[in-house]
From TrEMBL:
It comes from Streptomyces silvae. It catalyses: ATP + protein L-histidine = ADP + protein N-phospho-L-histidine. This is Oxygen sensor histidine kinase NreB. The chain crosses the membrane at residues 28-47, 59-88, 94-113, 125-143. It is found in: Cytoplasm. Residues 344-354 have a biased composition (Basic and acidic residues).
Length: 417
């Protein structure tokens, strides 16, 4: 709009000068009109150089511009229509009240100039200039308010964008922290259920070998060989951690069923005849079990059997995997010493994660399942982990009649390892 007003000013100034020269050629005031027109044009050109803020220099410039225009209007009333761009200039520079006063003054000069040009009284010449001035002022005020509102909206939008970016950064940082904590918890459970349990078994076997080294060398050698086998298994688990943190038994293929059979055979062999572990699978899965479910159930079985070996004093343990269509259930039972309500299994504080039963509960909870433990003194322990499965549209019933209960009772040590 500023460019439009600048162009309109010079167009009106040129038209007014041309009209005067055509109507009044050779008059004595002509040189003054031409000189004042040139001064007015030069003054107007200096305006953008001084800026738009109401500084003293800017106000002095505006006063000189208005005075030169008034002198021109007195000498040649046809220059009155240059007032419209001057309205805009005054409204831009002056405060609202001063700008309105200037517009009123310029309007009075325009009306007086038009009446001088008229041959008689014409109401239009009295009413038209104020109407034009009012419309020009209203348009400018409205546009300025819109500009102020737009600037405020822009500032608000920038603030909202900054808030959004800051919130996204904070959210990303929070998610990274939560992911780091979750990964630490998962790694602690993985290490406890595999490497830590294996090292504990090795320690027990080597201590037993040390005690029987002189009295029964054959038994001591057997303990050392068993500890060596456990070390090899732990080495495979450690390498698997480095690769993708999946259980080594699952990585060999065959799925969860084969991994449980392998686990049962290995724990039986490690015990040297002290513990027999059986594995039984009921039903057929409608679809392959998710990797997370297989990994979690295998880790639960490993941790539970480690607890049986270390705490339960059992001779027989049973792993039972049951496919029920909408869920899969893993039962670990043993015929160990068990525990009763008067001597519940010790539980570490809730903030201690990745150890024994709390680790198993955490694994099952992450999958939306439940973990239950049933036990009685002298009757063993039964641990049952039930995990829901995604809906497949079909159900799979057990392949035959339910298997007889495991010897004595199911198994989880009364003390979390």
């Amino acid at each position: 709009m500023a460019l439009l007003m600048h162009a309109a000013f010079f167009l009106l100034l040129g038209a007014s000068l041309a009209r005067f020269l055509m109507r009044h050629p050779g008059e004595t005031r002509t040189p003054w009109i031409i000189a004042l027109s040139a001064v007015l044009a030069v003054l107007y050109l200096l305006g953008p150089v001084l800026g738009s803020r109401p500084t003293p220099r800017r106000l002095t410039w505006l006063g000189a511009l208005v005075v030169v225009w008034m002198v021109l209007v007195v000498l040649a009333p046809s220059f009155a229509w240059c007032a419209v761009p001057l309205f805009y200039t005054g409204l831009r520079i002056l405060p609202p009240r001063a700008a309105l006063a200037l517009v009123a003054l310029l309007t009075v000069f325009v009306v007086a100039a038009q009446l001088r040009l008229a041959t008689g009284f014409d109401p239009n010449l009295v009413l038209a200039p104020p109407a034009v001035a009012a419309v020009a002022t209203a348009v400018f005020v409205h546009m300025r308010r819109q500009a102020v509102r737009q600037r405020e909206l822009s500032v608000r939008q920038r603030e909202l964008i900054d808030d959004l970016l800051r919130t996204r950064r904070e959210l990303a940082a929070t998610e990274r922290r939560e992911g780091t904590l979750a990964e630490r918890q998962r790694l602690s459970m993985e290490i406890h259920d595999t490497l830590a349990q294996g090292l504990s078994s090795q320690q027990m076997l080597l201590q037993a070998a040390d005690r029987s080294w002189d009295a029964d060398p054959a038994t001591a050698r057997r303990h050392v060989l068993t500890a060596t086998g456990i070390a090899e298994s732990n080495l495979a688990e450690a390498r698997r951690f480095v690769h993708d943190l999946a259980p080594a038994d699952l990585a060999e293929g065959g799925g969860l069923e084969a991994a449980l059979h392998t686990l049962a055979a290995r724990e039986t062999e490690r015990s040297g005849g002290g513990l027999t572990v059986r594995c039984h699978v009921e039903g057929v899965p409608a679809a392959p079990l998710p990797d997370r479910v297989q990994s979690a159930l295998l880790r639960i079985a490993q941790g539970a059997l480690a607890n049986v070996t270390e705490h339960a004093e059992a001779t027989v343990a049973a792993l039972t995997l049951t496919h029920l269509g909408d869920r899969v259930v893993l039962d670990i039972a043993d015929d160990g010493r068990g525990f009763g309500p008067d001597r519940p299994a010790p539980r570490p504080p809730e903030d201690v994660r990745g150890h024994g039963l709390p680790a198993m509960r955490a694994r099952v909870r992450q999958l939306g399942g439940t973990l239950t433990v049933e036990s009685a003194p002298g009757e063993g322990t039964v641990l049952s982990a039930a995990v829901p499965l995604p809906h497949t549209g079909t159900s799979s019933a057990p392949a035959g009649p339910p298997a007889p209960p495991a010897p004595s009772a199911p198994s989880t040590p009364e003390e979390p390892a």
